[in-house]
């Protein structure tokens, strides 16, 4: 992946973050999402590459999303797969809650898993614990093994879980194992990535979340030498039919290397609201400040970028 192209992608997420951040706390998640989508699409289409969204937030019939199958870019340059979430955590933006990101992952054509936007069961950890997790193992067994790998007591292990009714049994099992829980309202990509960071309070992510988010997280985890194990949990017959069409079994377990097959992947995100991965957009009278992260698989570099955008003079 050309480093200049990777840096072009940060302009895409910056634009989406700035436009969606204008809707923070205004109670309108649809317009927040629309603003991110429009800004992201416009920036993508100015870049010299030939991109295709292989997993995203919807289908063509459900526009205005950046839909699966949509082509982006000028058409000149390398052919690439794209996984995209223009605004993860739309509710967080609408109601001014914690944690929201604009995110994309890219890889050479044919490298990212093509799949429907549905649920997946997930478990994600950082480098030191990546060899000990098992999606089919009891919760306590996974927590004990992760604790041992990290050199911690199980009571010191913190598990990130989406605060959903479907996770009641999972939460009960984590409590029974004497581990700690960090419940999140939305946004499991940031906490999956946080498992790879030495200064993060999150040791492991568990539970069901979106399949798009699984691919996005996998791109970052591959670069940071972490691991994510996933399995599809289709919501309805339509999702099941789509999996059959793509030749995917509901029993199949995917690793990060299955979700993102090529090492020349990128992950790019810009904070919309403060979260465990990045600070959010800061609006000033003359300048707007954004914070982004850019990862390149080919060099395994992780860059944090603080950008100062000069606002247009008011008429």
Q: What is the N-to-C succession of helices and strands? A: HHEEEHEEHEHEHEHEHHEEEE
Radius of gyration: 19 Å
Give average pLDDT, whole number. 93
The biggest beta sheet is recorded as: 8 strands, mixed
Number of helices: 9
Structural class: alpha+beta
The end-to-end span amounts to: 42 Å
What gross morphology would you assign?
globular
Oligomer: single chain
Helix content: 25-40%
Which residues sit in consecutive blocks of at least 5 with pLDDT less than 50?
none
Strand content: 25-35%
Number of strands: 13
Present the secondary structure layout:
Elements: H1 3-21, H2 29-44, E1 50-55, E2 71-72, E3 79-88, H3 90-95, E4 100-108, E5 119-125, H4 139-150, E6 158-162, H5 168-176, E7 180-184, H6 188-194, E8 204-210, H7 211-223, E9 227-233, H8 237-245, H9 256-259, E10 266-273, E11 282-283, E12 287-296, E13 301-310
Parallel strand pairs: 1-3, 6-7, 6-8
Antiparallel strand pairs: 1-2, 3-4, 4-10, 5-8, 5-9, 10-12, 11-12, 12-13
Helix pairs in contact: 1-2, 6-7
């Amino acid at each position: 992946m050309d480093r200049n192209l990777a840096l072009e992608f940060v302009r895409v997420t910056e634009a989406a973050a700035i436009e969606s951040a204008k809707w923070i706390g205004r109670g309108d998640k649809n317009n927040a999402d629309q603003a991110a989508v429009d800004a992201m699409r416009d920036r993508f289409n100015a870049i010299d590459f030939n991109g295709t969204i292989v997993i995203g937030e919807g289908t063509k019939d459900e526009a205005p999303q950046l839909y699966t199958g949509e082509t982006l870019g000028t058409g000149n340059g390398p052919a690439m797969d794209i996984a995209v979430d223009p605004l993860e955590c739309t509710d967080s933006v609408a109601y001014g809650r914690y944690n929201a990101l604009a995110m994309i992952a890219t890889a050479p054509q044919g490298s990212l898993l093509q799949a429907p936007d549905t649920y997946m069961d997930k478990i994600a950890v950082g480098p030191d614990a990546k060899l000990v997790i098992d999606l089919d193992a009891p919760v306590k067994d996974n927590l004990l093994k992760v604790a041992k790998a990290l050199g911690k007591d199980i009571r010191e292990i913190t598990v990130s879980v989406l605060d959903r009714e479907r996770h009641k049994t999972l939460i009960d099992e984590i409590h029974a194992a004497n581990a700690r829980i960090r419940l999140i309202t939305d946004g499991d990509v940031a906490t999956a990535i946080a498992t790879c960071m030495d200064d993060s309070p999150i040791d492991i992510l568990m539970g069901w979340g979106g399949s798009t988010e699984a691919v996005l997280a996998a791109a970052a985890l591959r670069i940071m030498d972490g691991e994510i194990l996933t399995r599809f949990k289709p919501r309805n017959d339509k999702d099941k039919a789509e999996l059959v069409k793509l030749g995917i079994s509901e029993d199949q377990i995917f690793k990060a290397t299955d979700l993102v097959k090529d090492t020349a992947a990128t992950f790019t995100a810009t904070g919309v609201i403060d979260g465990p991965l990045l600070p959010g957009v800061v609006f000033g009278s003359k300048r707007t400040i954004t914070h982004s992260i850019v990862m390149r698989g080919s060099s395994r570099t992780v860059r944090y970028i603080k950008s100062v955008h000069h606002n247009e003079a008011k008429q």
